[in-house]
Amino acid sequence: MGSTSAQTNEGLGRRDLIKRSAAIGLISVPSMGFLSACASGDGSGNEKVEKGTKSDKNPLGVNESAPFDFVLFDGGFGQDYAKAAVKLYEKNYPKAKVKFTPTQKIATTLQPRFNGGTPPDLIDNSGAEQMDMGVLVGQKQLADLTPLLDAPSIDDPSKKVRDTLRPGIVEMGQFDGQPCWVLNYAYTVYGVWYSQKLLDSLEAKYPETWDEMIEVCGKAKKKGIAPWTYAGKYPYYLPFSLYPMIGKVGGREVLDAIDNLEPKAWEHPAVKSCLEAYYELVKKGFILEGTPGLDHIQSQTAWTEGKALFLPNGSWVENEAAKTMPADFNLAVSAPTGLDASDKMPFGTIWAAGGEPFIVPAKAANAEGGMEQLRIMLSEASSKSFTESVKSLTALNGGTDGVKMTPGLASGVAALKKAGENVVNPRLQDWYVTLQKDQIGGAGLGEMMAGRATPTETIKKIQKFADDAAKDSSIKHYKHQ
Question: What DSSP assignment string belongs to 13-58?
């Protein structure tokens, strides 16, 4: 696996998703104001390559000798899976010269290229310097991926690529229900992660109601184990378990109202109940001491060392924390604990969604090449290679036959099966990066979980952030269709 920013300590690269996987606190990335300069009117910019001839083997009409330029975010998933997919591209198009650039500094690397109208053909737009997808779409910087979705899949040409994808992948790439602009390659299960071995040693089961949660936390604390820790420096990790809990307690419509920036969305009783539940963890001393000062790697390490029981995170954690995770840790994930029997959705309701967003720029010289590389990555062989090497699912619905399941991966698959239709997918982190990460995460939930603000104060503060974003005409607004 390639060096992750977590190992080099330079951008603290995160999965993503999410989704979106980022540590924006360290690097202040401009809100892509540079994109307004993208429509370079001086005639400079990429020359579009001539299209190739479409055939059964080449359904997108890739120019077989055209150069292909691919920039990958080098984070928790490393580079190996992408390098393997590039080799397949080179095998299919031996005359093509492929330029492959892994980096943790996506915006820094690509800002000058977007400005000059010479972006690469394919980008894995993730990590701390992720470019704001809402802005990219709003400024018409991305190519419509419909040709890829309508192309025959590599494994079964009688099926279109779109028919081989997991639920929600196409919708996640849409903005305002419009064509698909983004293809999220990874499929992330978010929730509460723990060592099954440690939970068993407490003679406890994973708690389904909040009373049970408090009981399990009390047992852990008595044994000298902190019940919870999280990425205190990047508190936008907290929603990975808090948002689906809100959905479970109040129903999907509460999460939709939050995504839609509706007035008073954060004042819903379900939101208040869930924030009060989390605040109870603070008040009862159930958070590992010093957590507000820990980054994601430090909190994960304390957790793998058995200092804390529960950790809100995404399924990339199995790969990212592998170095410090004991062989008998028996990693498991569960959907969030609810409040009680009055919750609107059943226990098992979980957040799962596409992560690791790939984009083809509108001004790419070889857009067909970018889409073809994605088509290759969505084959069973590439999907298996990814899942085996990074212990995470892909957007391909399947691709796990014959794959040796690690404990966390098997637990994630089981959690998805248990959830069935009860999968929620909050969109704030796709639509409004700054609001989600810095404001709701840092200034809002982070302050509350550090014990510096009450749930009531936090709700008031976050609602104002959401209202301000809703009124800000410089922000492109999106809504659930």
Answer: ---EESEE---TTTS----SGGGGG-S-TTS-SPPPPPP----SS-
